[in-house]
Amino acid sequence: MSMVFALKLFLVPILIWLVTLAGRRWGPGVAGWLSAFPIVAGPILFALTLEQGPEFAAHAAEGTLLAVVALLVFSVAYAWAAMRFGVAGSMALALLAYGMAVAALQALSLPLAGAFVLVWCALLAATRLFPGVAPSVAASSPRRSDLPWRMLAGAVLVFAVTTGAAQLGARLSGFFAMFPVMSTVLVGFAHASLGRGNAVALLRGMVTGYFGFSVFCAVLALQLREGALAPAFGLALGCALAVHLAARRVLGSSAPAPAAPAKA
């Protein structure tokens, strides 16, 4: 079994499993924050580097960075839709908003620095755009049977992006690496089983985590053009972790305190 095949088959599902367990222990906000670390897009970009080369992966990382804006649109759209609709309606509206955002961003041509500034401005704005609903107490016990489906979704995404990279091109591969597979699975489960307040808390945690994720993409895009593969990914992950922890420290306390149960 090649290293690339093993990466596709095992790494992302294992990481999704670990995030799910962390969420069950420490709550949806922590799960959202952890899931925003490059645990899905990172392995995809690593596989693209091995299979398509550093220059291709650098362009893909730029696309992934800009796609953070589309994920913010998805997150805010779902949060507000959840105030009125159940899981199916909220997910449909959020994915529609995401698709429209991707289409608009695909037509946008920005240098790396400009894309980074745009993403951080969007992140700072998004922290203030969520509805003021607090997480509820657990409405029901978490279902263990959904975990294999979460892991399968992650593996399918990695296979789809890396297999179709040559046809998609570097930029669109980068966007597809940020398809909200973690968001749809984790948020849908939280909304269905624990209520909309917990789904919003998870989404808010994701936004906090995207600060570090954006740094990962920007540093990786720069370093893949300058150095070897291992130092590029090592530096990108180190910088992302520092910002990830700092964002949690600064913004983690901004969520509303728990209140009365808020089921969908």
UniProtKB/TrEMBL annotation:
Write the record's keywords in alphabetical order, separated by commas. Membrane, Transmembrane, Transmembrane helix
Quote the protein name from its UniProt record.
DUF3147 family protein
| Transmembrane segments annotated in the record for this chain | 6-23, 30-50, 56-80, 87-106, 112-130, 151-169, 175-194, 201-222, 228-247
Q: Does the keyword Transmembrane apply?
A: yes
Q: Which residues form the signal peptide?
A: none
Q: Which organism is it from?
A: Massilia niabensis
